[in-house]
Design a protein that fits this description.
heterotrimer; A alpha/beta; B alpha/beta; C alpha/beta; B: alpha/beta; five-stranded mixed β-barrel; globular; C: alpha/beta; Glucose Oxidase, domain 1; two-stranded antiparallel ribbon; 6 helices
């Protein structure tokens, strides 16, 4: 059992300047181009000069042969704090955690957190084939179905164990599409009906077309700095009340039913001084609806196996009883590679600073952002969460 | 229950031949421990020698205690299929072409969880038995079969993709003069081969067993001399595109070593019959086999080499023979790499002394020609690529694994 | 006065002297002598293409061949047999070259052989032949026409459970031909100059024994003997000049005057 040492608060550190570079289905540009657009946007909106950025955290799957180091020279940055965060859907939360501590400790003053990927016509296939050693050895040779196949197994098991039905998953997807209708760059911004969802073509049973995200090119970014720095830049900012992170949380579980935050979630809420019902909206990492359900359970909104009922008894749109994935989530806007791990966090910053891209969550003052990802063999390894609040 | 395989209709000669594709065969070095097990038809996983944890996927340190002593050992293949999915679409052309493709998560009794290919009769929630098989890329994959044998099990299309089952396939036995060649012809006919071509050189030289061969219904005797390049080329031209499995039964066995012999006539014959013969067959039949690796139910499937186990360690009493067999083994390894892009397996079947005339003075245990033939058929049905037949072959294999130098001395006594 | 060889050459060119090929084509399919498996075997004829106007040799076609000294139509030198091993000039490279050209007496027993694969040539048979055609001249080849070369390869080899059944001379014949007729050598259509079951004679393989023992020669696997006259043909049979060779495959030609056969 981990000792219950009190964790240090994030007092004095904020996140600000949410940037989204509009997504495109396919792009002949490199990941470096997309990351460069996001950096440019940060610099333009903040009035900062590139040399003012003294911390840089980057997440990308398609930036090879570069890593973060190569990018410093590429972009003309000279940071004194540098991190490469290849954690997929958990990248945003992890970048936030790392950057916040660096700023608190004075190791950096202005940290640009950027995630972005390109999508060439063969990017997806190539990414799958070399994703990780275990995927190469023990998953890809079995039908090369990618994450779709892995999560199909997880979904099937969840449905067998807890009686979830496809109609329950549909509610998540349909509500998210509703939220995306007003997002200009969403890949899928038509409303989705239950009929369309149910009759969509199967990808890997029981997962069908609308359970899957559409890979695309794009970038997301934000800045982490001290509260006074944000004030001096004259940009609205958001406080960090608490965060948690865990990797390879439950190696003994035969099939993934919990994502990683179950053991640490008490700490998340107590550190924030809030309860689950206190937040105004929740951003989950939505690579598949079953993963959304597991996050709702693991993060304390209902108990294990109750998410189908939870989803049935709440409205998940921005104007509903449980606003969820305010920009429509990846399932609506598409997954721009690692930027998928940032998009919930970036849209949370917008909602909390009253500058939404699309529809607004009324009186948004606090939220939970959850990240999850990195399917290595048969389960996602990385998870994390953050409770954020509007600056009073 | 699997659909029984239907004898394929004659191929439409105007239709393009489907080209072979394969799944990705790249594996880490540790994962090739599974390939080694699959090659011999064993089910082995890494077991930590320090804490006995059974480990999967293969790796370089025990996930329980971090020991590096994680070695492959045979483990219980039994388990339960806890979840399954059917992959309907894939970015990988091989699987795209063969969709829908079932895979599932198996909880092994031995501990780990394995994502495996599913035999059609493996059912979610039920008991299964895992086997390690070599897929078309030549690397190992796990396949979950129903725990109890079901009807027509071998005909399951996913399983048949991993094996070289002779059923409905057309076989070439390169030399029908010998006891081994004749036993081989009979074994393949019994295994459901559509045609068994049997090569006979020098038809003007009579040999025993010709009449029995002629009685086998699906058998066709063709002129074939493994020492004659033109003869082999001609056979390949005439019948190459309708031969799915080549079994090289050409043999040349003479007792004697190297110093203790006078002259090179026997050595020349050995090399010509065994080594150059294998090369001739490879050059003539290899390309067409490789081309037809995905050509329907009776696609080209395998090239079988019958090798003395003394290819692995010379037996000085038959020293020149052993050396020639070693050359054949090395050539077979080359052929294996060259045929792999077609998804065609090179199967090496090792045996000790046979119960045939040129091993007359060797004491038992010896391998009967029929036993060898049955082992070859079984190997093809299982899809293994390295087979050891009989007690002597198994004995040599074990001693070689522990101390080759000791075996070298022991072979000379 | 020297003989007019130019007229001889012209006679060949215009066909007044016919040139008849007594040679079987060297091919992989042609049967070779088969000895008990424990003994060393004669290499069969094999051919490996080096190039054929391709990337291995763009403008030319050529082959490497492998064969034994006694493969196909071939010449036996006295050194080939134990009985001739110590005679002078007994190998193909040391035989006086004049001996490669000699007349031939062709003894026809094709009718008898048609009914009997074990036909054995006797002295009496030869004497009956001589009664019609005159005595065999000294220094002549004696060629045994059996029409065996017209048979299928299986019948040609004549192999059964107890070995080969092909026609050939009785032991007394070879001895008599050498001692009483001073023959140049003995030639056959079959594989081997000896009777198929010659291993059972005394001495075994008497044609080899006596011919080579007296420094005479052998020719085997001949064909087209039916195109030759009983007498009057001149045989050109020059083996390859192999160092201490026991024999060699060769081109055997018969010169026959037009109108003679």
């Amino acid at each position: 059992m981990i000792s219950a040492t009190t964790r240090k608060s994030y007092e004095g550190v904020v996140a600000c300047l949410p940037v989204t570079i509009p997504y495109r289905r396919y792009s002949t540009n490199s990941a470096q181009w997309w990351l460069g657009r996001a950096l440019h946007e940060l610099v333009k909106r903040s009035g900062l000069r590139p040399k003012d950025i003294d911390g840089f955290a980057v997440s990308s799957f398609t930036v090879a042969p570069d890593t973060a180091v190569g990018l410093t020279q590429h972009f003309g940055l000279s940071p004194r704090w540098l991190d490469h965060i290849p954690f997929g859907g958990a990248s945003g939360i992890v970048a936030l955690r790392r950057a916040a501590r660096a700023v608190q400790a004075g190791d950096a003053d202005i940290v640009a957190c950027v995630a972005g990927d390109t999508n060439h016509v063969d990017s997806f296939r190539k990414t799958l084939a070399t994703f990780s050693r275990f995927a190469q050895d023990a998953m890809y040779p079995y039908g090369a179905g990618g994450a779709n196949a892995s999560f199909a197994l997880i979904t099937k098991n969840y449905m067998n164990r807890y009686g979830a039905k496809r109609e329950d998953f549909a509610r998540i997807c349909i509500a998210q599409r509703e939220n995306a209708v007003s997002i200009p760059h969403a890949m899928m911004k038509k409303r989705l009906t239950l009929d369309e969802y149910m009759s969509a073509r199967p990808i890997a049973d029981p997962i069908h077309l609308f359970d899957c995200v559409m890979p695309c090119a794009g970038a997301e970014a934000f800045i982490v700095c001290r509260e006074d720095t944000a004030k001096s830049l004259n940009v609205p900012s958001v406080r960090i009340l608490s965060t948690i992170e865990r990797h390879n949380a439950y190696p003994g579980d035969p099939i993934q039913e919990r994502l990683g935050t179950e053991d640490d979630v008490g700490q998340l809420w107590s550190m924030a001084g809030l309860k689950p019902q206190d937040v105004d909206f929740v951003q989950t990492y939505d690579d598949y609806p079953v993963v959304v359900m597991m996050q709702l359970e693991d993060l304390g909104f209902c108990s294990k196996g109750e998410a189908p009922e939870f989803v049935r008894s709440h409205t998940l749109t921005n104007d509903g009883t449980f606003p969820h994935n305010t920009s429509g989530g990846q399932l609506s806007v598409g997954q721009a590679g690692a930027a998928g791990g940032f998009l919930g966090l970036v849209d949370a910053l917008r909602q909390l600073t009253a500058q939404p891209l699309g529809s607004k969550v009324p009186d948004a003052s606090a939220c939970l952002v959850s990240g999850f990802g990195m399917i290595n063999y048969d389960r996602g390894l990385s998870s994390g969460a953050a409770v954020l609040a509007r600056l009073a | 229950m699997s659909q029984p395989l239907v004898r394929p209709k004659r191929k439409n000669p105007l239709k393009r031949t489907r080209l072979p594709l394969g799944p990705q065969g790249v594996r880490s070095r540790a994962a090739h421990g599974l390939t080694a097990a699959a090659a011999e038809g064993r089910f082995a996983l890494q077991v930590c020698l320090d804490c006995q944890t059974v480990i999967y996927p293969p790796r370089d340190a025990c996930p329980s205690c971090l020991s590096a002593r994680v070695l492959f050992r045979d483990v219980d293949p039994g388990g339960t299929l806890i979840a399954e999915t059917t992959v309907r679409t894939s970015t990988e052309p091989y699987f795209r072409e063969r969709a829908p493709w079932r895979i599932g998560t198996v909880q092994l009794d031995a501990g780990p969880v394995i994502v495996a290919h599913l035999h059609g009769d493996a059912a979610e929630g039920k008991r299964v038995r895992l086997e390690l098989k070599l897929d078309k890329s030549g690397s190992a994959v796990a396949m979950a079969l129903p725990a109890k044998e079901t009807e027509h099990m071998a005909d399951d299309p996913h399983l048949r993709e991993m094996t070289c089952d002779p059923k409905f396939r057309r076989i070439l036995i390169t030399d029908g003069r010998t006891a081994v060649g004749q036993a081989m012809a009979k074994a393949f006919a019994d295994a459901g081969a559509a045609i068994v071509f049997v090569g006979v050189a020098d038809a003007w030289k009579p040999f025993p067993g010709l009449e029995s061969l002629r009685k086998i219904e699906c058998l066709e005797i063709v002129p074939l001399d493994v020492t004659d390049t033109e003869s082999i080329a001609e056979q390949a031209e005439q019948n190459g595109s309708r031969i799915d499995i080549v079994v090289n039964t050409a043999e040349h066995v003479r007792p004697g070593g190297i110093l203790n012999r006078r002259g090179l006539t026997i050595a020349r014959e050995e090399i010509d019959v065994r080594y150059l013969g294998q090369l001739r067959l490879a050059q003539a039949f290899g390309p067409i086999l490789r081309f037809r690796g995905a050509d329907g139910v009776n696609s080209a499937a395998a090239f079988v080499n019958l090798l003395s186990v003394h290819a692995l360690m010379n037996w000085p009493s038959y020293g020149s023979y052993s050396a020639t067999e070693a050359a054949c083994l090395s050539a077979a390894q080359c052929m294996r790499a060259e045929l792999r892009p077609g998804g065609v397996k090179v199967v090496n079947v090792f045996f000790g002394p046979l119960d045939t005339e040129w091993f007359q003075t060797v004491p038992p245990p010896k391998v009967m020609p029929a036993a060898l033939a049955n082992a070859v058929v079984r190997a093809l049905q299982q899809g293994v690529e390295d087979v050891f037949v009989g007690d002597v072959a198994e004995d040599v294999r074990q001693r070689l694994a522990v101390n080759p130098k000791a075996l070298e001395r022991e072979m000379a006594t | 006065m020297p003989l007019d060889l130019l007229s001889f050459a012209r006679a060949i060119a215009i066909g007044d002297i016919r040139v008849i090929d007594l040679t079987q084509t060297l091919s992989q399919e042609f049967p070779t002598i088969v000895l008990p498996p424990e003994l060393g075997q004669c290499a069969p004829f094999r051919i490996e293409e080096i190039s054929r106007y391709d990337e291995r040799g763009p403008a030319w076609y050529w082959n490497n061949i492998s064969l034994g000294e006694h493969t196909g139509t071939h010449f036996d030198a006295p050194i080939h047999w134990i009985s001739g091993k110590d005679l002078p000039n007994n190998a193909v490279d040391t035989i006086e070259v004049a001996k490669f050209i000699a007349p031939a007496a062709v003894i026809d027993c094709s009718k008898e052989c048609a009914e009997n694969a074990d036909f054995a040539l006797t002295i009496a048979f030869i004497e009956r032949w001589e009664a019609r055609h005159g005595e065999i001249e000294p220094g002549s080849w004696v060629l045994l026409r059996t029409d065996w070369s017209k048979r299928s390869y299986t019948d040609y080899a004549g192999l059964r459970d107890d070995g080969a059944h092909t026609p050939g001379p009785e032991p007394a014949v070879a001895k008599w031909l050498v001692e009483q007729r001073d023959v140049h050598g003995f030639g056959t259509e079959t594989i081997g100059t000896d009777f198929g079951q010659g291993q059972h004679f005394n001495p075994p393989y008497p044609a080899h024994f006596y011919m080579h023992g007296k420094g005479r020669f052998g020719l085997q696997c001949l064909t087209n003997l039916d195109l030759l006259p009983p007498k009057g043909a001149v045989i050109i049979a020059a083996p390859l000049k192999i160092k201490q060779g026991s024999g060699s495959p060769l081109r055997v030609l018969a010169l026959v005057a037009k109108g003679a056969a």
